[in-house]
Design goal:
Four copies of one chain form a homotetramer.
Chain A: E1 5-12, H1 19-29, E2 37-44, E3 47-54, H2 57-60, H3 63-68, E4 73-79, E5 94-98, E6 101-111, H4 114-123, H5 133-146, H6 151-161, E7 164-171, E8 175-180, E9 189-192, E10 197-201, H7 205-209, E11 213-217, E12 222-227, E13 232-236, E14 245-246, H8 247-253, E15 259-260, E16 263-264, H9 265-278, E17 286-289, H10 295-305, E18 313-315, H11 330-338, E19 339-341, H12 343-346, E20 350-355, H13 362-373, E21 378-383, H14 411-418, E22 422-425, H15 428-435, E23 442-443, H16 445-448
Parallel strand pairs in A: 14-23, 17-20, 20-21, 21-22
Antiparallel strand pairs in A: 1-4, 1-10, 2-3, 2-4, 5-6, 6-7, 7-8, 8-12, 9-10, 9-11, 12-13, 15-16, 18-19
Chain lengths: ~475, ~475, ~475, ~475
């Protein structure tokens, strides 16, 4: 089960202050990380409270449900949307009762050796009610805990067994634990609720919305413990000489107003545009983004290239996840309902069209078709993310390698397929420069096929259908 | 978790015939055994299909969901309704994936040593996602199976460990297993689908509705195996010199058109009335039942006593589980909305009012009030079930001993409290005679406090709120 | 639009007491008169409040909605269920704003000259948003009111124009009006809320549930005015030498615990059974009803014939309006899911089976099949309602004449078609005697084809699909 | 009832082609014009089909409902959202049956003399089921039609009586009529479905989405008739020497990719920014829009002023109409959840913040607070719409004059209240220039208090609560 998710954990010092509301607002701000299901689990002295459901944060929780989620500590989760594989059983946080209490886990990432671990657990008597990696992690932690270890020791032991990416929030009877894999693949940050408590979350936007001050990253290989008195304890369990921060979070996935690993996402996206723009000798009338994700890069490109920035496509804010499409007309309509060209801005223009990334190429092809249909003279595609050639196995939902347009085509072949007049990608080197990290600290596996973890050694689960919104 | 439930399992020889529809119809006929949640799990060669939900059978399943529940074999479950303790996690059948496949279980009954077993399992590393006994049984079976035993051997081993009542339907990759506890406390029957397959179910009414012929009881201590080719194999694992068939199934719980342990429920209820009527020297104008459950007994009483049978209370068929009651007027209205006296039949009459049983006495009190308010001259209460003095721990949902009116009151005190002009109960001896079994084969624990199992030895789970409809 | 409905109106003297709750409880008790849609409209000094919806009373109203239906006076309505013709636009009460205020109407009955009136209204400029007769009545009343008449005068004028059956509750800015057609075809009664106000309703059961005392019938041709101070004013507008009380209300439609036109329904149904039983020379082991409606008649038959009364069919209380039926198995299952024979009571028996009425004969045929399948030796059908030969046009939902089995078949032919060993109907004369009214005061149009109103003169609306539950 | 709405009408030549799907897609593209309720009415030879509901287009219609909306011609409607006044009775299209058939109307606009017309209609016997102007129009048309006029003549006659703004789509048994008020206040355009039929709609974006070619505006005072064979007939009923196109459609309400009265909205918004930017001598580091509506103007401003364009606020795309806010924290959170400043882009910056318009000033105040909280050195507010001083009575939903910040404050007072370092509005003259029309053809009533219609003469309906999203 591939997980593209967002997590949050909140603890207030004041016993009477309910964590549920702050978790709810944070989840609203992390909704872009997963729209399939959501859940909140809170803990009071005398028990755990849980509410989960299939749908958006706004659809699942009500005043009544937030109010009944009692307790000053809790965790929350949003999970991404796929066809078919979605089940209420896989909704998180995952809650289990064990020998000495209750444990709830929310997970963002993908465990590469999940099948091995699951087989081993099954072989020693464990049974599974979901298909998620999270249940495996719960089993492993409880097994260690049973040996007499405390939770920090137990989690530390499990971290040695887990191969893959994971940012975890764990709620026990006595603490919240925020855990990040040794390579730091998926993000996780700590915030201070103005002295009234702490929050951990996938992105800094979740801190902003509840008025929390950003403290720092949860470090790769760290277990951050927030006990019942809201005291912080850091346990740096594993220390590797390098990191593997996911470059795709910067390029597309994270919100532009987030700061990841102390680097503002917005700045990276601007620089991506600038770096392409600086070296681009194309003659064009305007540069225009595919909204919304490519806007900062297109603005950066414009400044570097001196080609004026213009909007040419308007997104319909009301057409969301689903609408009705009769088979025969579906293909074109799906894009048209979401994006409409501004005819007056397009007609007769040579346009540099900026997109954050190209995955299968079908959407690019249709958007270029829309612009040409509206009278564009030329459409020159510029792409912020270097060619994606290899499916991610560390927590980003992607189609199979066969479906990735860059996997078996040259840039020229791609240009032809999408119908652009020219096509340029940012180079991997420039991307790394735009992010501003050392090469060795970034995971660029989907671009290079070289993953920070030797994925080939592990049995791969059948991955779910890819969906890009 | 106390379970008052109904189970069904269906297997068709024809691979292409879907079991889901027959399970659905059977569950409709077992709806009286549980209205909180329901579920169906089916199995095809290549996988398991599951649909569960909180609500009535009619509310949860649709044409689409039944159609997508593919496969020629499957099991179904209805679960009873309580306030608060109801959770989707506890809905059954419970489905788990284990080392060599998938296992689904539906359970009717109550495991007395559940807490001991759960503690032991937790102590050896098991984790729990629900609060139901069923998850314990799943863990135990899989543990035995892991030791290399086949499922019959595994279930047999688990039966030695389980103390309490259980009628189980179990669906594995290769078979359906119908299992009944060694005392046969809860019912379970086998039916033949006119040569096209088999059905097992809690009551014979589930056979009637799908046109199955009743074959026999699943025997106490038996594992009945229905393999993928619809071959039957019986494994009589435990053979005890006595049974403990629940007398309350005859008195109130089972449907009157069911045949339990080869004894028609309807006949028992008639005889209950006859036995009271034969020895009753009351002078009355009419005998009348509290509909619907007391009708056969009131008819029997009438025949024996020669007091004419008349209806005096009409039940509103549309007022079901819930309606809105503002606090101040709630008490009287709740009964009035459900039962209305026929004034013309009541006025000036001396009435023998027959009820199947008295639990807390509050409903009896209000109904007698209704009849007196409508002009009844006298109301003589006759009760088919001897005084209930001790809460059931073997699968019938009852209030605490403190709330049981017969627990700490004499018959005369009870008569006064409910406002009857006289009050008579059937004796335990007559009840046993009415059922027509040997004393030693019946569980009368709730009447005598003497249970077939030494309950006092076991830690008792906190029981859920009692609700009688 | 044929209307089979229930109406209620409530006025409290106390301005602060909300009428909505009492209307809600009354509608629950009238639910058998219509299950398609329901609505409540209340009035406070400063405005009207309305809530309507498709579904059962219990499904549509919530605590919140009842609470927001403010005001000490109001009316309510339940409407019957058909396939297809059901629309929210036809849900009642029907609310309109007119020249001097607001008017809400709830209607039970059928206006025979509806099409003529509608055409005339349209021809003079009226427009219609629904297909119900009620909108016609609203138009007519307002037109009279506009001429300067007060509402009593206006309604009186309209009564002269309406041909057909109607029991109306009308809510205006200043009063509630209860109106009954000059022939009194559909029932309407007045109750006293223990001095705190008044209630009018289709049946006395609606009075019982809110603790109101029955005062009297609303008289045929009467307008009963309940003003804002809860003063009663009677206006006997039309006085005919005869009535046309619907005999089918007694036979089947009204609740058995209701008193219609001062005659208890239950008594009528008992007598119906007695009258058949007295003259029946059949040799049988038992007499048994098709539950629930035929129970009182079967009891009466038993007493008269000395044939013992026994239950043989158990009704599933949970199978209500809808369930899923795959085409191929539908026919038999539909009956089986609702009624199950008690095999032990049926086998080898000669049974007199009592039903309230036979409409199309298909259900009778299937039930007889069920009993014979369960081993009945003979099934002798006895029917409380004389042969129904002509579709009702005055407010009872019936199939077309072609579908009525008695329309074109002799009793012997019907007996053969339904598979009974013998078949006897109550005679029309005996039915009239059982009801206990003079012949000329009863409408027996569906039995004789002779209606109290010359229906043939009027254009008939296309009638909706008939559904008997 | 004030209506802020969108309308569409579609007719296909091919009898078998369903209009419902194209209407649905068009409504999706017009969703910004109304989110409260929506409806589609279609017409086939033998009847009308209707589906309406409270909610978004995407929430109300399903495959099944679109499929059951049969017929090659139909109209659709979206209606805006207010608290309280929303009722299903007011959902459109409004459908009525009249003397010679059926009529359905969808309306965008506001009838100023509605109360007079309604009173007159009521006085002559009309009754009303809704509180919408549309029902008045239906009555008026039918009255004329009854006099023997055809529908064009009837509508023409009604247009003489209506005072106010209206763009109508009318569906009759034989045609679709698109009607626009003589001043052309609300937009309405005609499109050609590639020779297969015609579409009329509020904005050109509705044409784009179904692949229709823009033909022309429906002219002020024109009735455009599309008969059953898809023949077009134009009837220019009223010809005034001036128009009163709503300037607020250009400034805020219409979609930026629409072309209104042959003027592209996007261009107008760019020029608005340019005109302010040209004359602005402020020293600032960046100019930034409040997304999404102010983006084109901010871009225009940047080009004219040479101040660099930057994004500083990110909108949460998942926080839509409703979310849960506990009272105490509500005020700040409401804005924070929707807009988040990008700290790195804001800190230490002098920012020109561009908004499309200021209505009550509260949102501006909170956004400026957010930016200053994120470290902005200065925030200079620039506003595309001149000060709004007088509530619109011609179809735009606005708060009362008392709530309009510009109604009783100088620009300096407003600057202080919203906490800006400077505040500049576009002048009315520049706005007119930016739109590019002659002064006399624009309605600027909300800016000047001088309406194209003498509103003071008419009784004003109580207006619903204003809500700006």
């Amino acid at each position: 089960m591939k997980d593209k998710c967002g997590v949050v954990g909140v603890c207030f010092k004041d016993n009477l202050k309910k964590a549920s509301y702050s978790i709810y607002y944070s989840l609203l701000s992390l909704q872009h990380r997963g729209q399939e299901s959501t859940g909140i689990v809170t803990r009071k002295k005398n028990g755990f409270f849980s509410e989960k459901g299939m749908g958006l944060v706004n659809e699942i929780f009500t005043f009544d449900s937030l109010d009944s989620l009692d307790g000053n500590a809790g965790i929350g989760h949003v999970r991404y949307s796929t066809m078919g594989a979605s089940q209420i059983e896989n909704a998180q946080p995952f809650v289990v009762r064990h020998s000495s209490g209750t444990l709830a886990i929310g997970h963002n990432g993908n465990i590469v050796n999940a099948e091995e671990l699951r087989h081993a657990l099954k072989a020693s008597g464990s049974i599974f009610v979901s298909t998620s990696d999270t249940e495996i992690i719960a089993h492993l932690i409880i097994r260690e805990h049973l040996k007499g270890k405390d939770f920090v020791e137990s989690i530390a032991e499990v971290m040695k067994k887990l191969v893959g990416s994971y940012s975890l929030v764990i709620l026990t009877d006595n603490a919240i634990y925020a855990v990040r894999d040794p390579l730091g693949i998926r993000p996780l940050v700590l915030g201070n609720l103005e002295g009234r408590g702490y929050i951990v979350a996938s992105e800094t936007v979740a801190l902003d919305v509840v008025g929390a001050k950003y403290v720092r990253n949860v470090k790769p290989g760290e277990i951050l413990e927030i006990d019942n008195y809201c005291s912080l304890n850091s346990h740096r369990v594993i220390r590797l000489p390098k990191k593997a921060y996911c470059m795709f979070e910067y390029v597309y996935f994270a919100r532009p107003d987030s700061v990841l690993n102390d680097i503002p996402v917005y700045k990276v996206r601007e620089r991506i545009g600038e770096f392409i723009g600086l070296n681009d000798d194309i003659e064009a009338d305007i540069v225009s983004p595919i909204p919304d994700s490519a806007i900062p890069s297109a603005l950066g490109y414009s400044r570097a290239s001196k080609i004026p920035y213009r909007e040419t496509l308007i997104r319909n804010r009301y057409v969301g996840r689903t609408f009705i499409l009769p088979e025969q007309e579906a293909r074109e309509l799906a894009v048209k309902l979401k994006l409409n060209p501004i005819a007056g801005e397009v007609k007769g223009k040579k346009i540099v069209l900026f997109d954050d990334s190209i995955v299968r190429g079908t959407t690019s092809s249709r958007i270029i078709g829309l612009l040409k249909g509206a009278g564009a003279k030329e459409v020159h595609m510029r792409v912020g993310c270097p060619p994606i050639k290899s499916r991610c196995n560390l927590g980003i939902n992607m189609p199979t390698n066969e479906e990735l347009i860059a996997n078996n085509k040259t840039v020229e072949e791609m240009r032809e397929e999408i119908g652009a007049d020219s096509l340029k990608y940012l180079s991997i080197e420039s991307l790394i420069e735009a992010i501003g990290m050392e090469d060795r600290n970034l995971c660029t596996g989907c671009l290079t096929g070289k993953y920070p973890i030797d994925i080939s050694k592990y049995e791969q689960v059948k991955l779910p259908v890819y969906m890009k919104k």
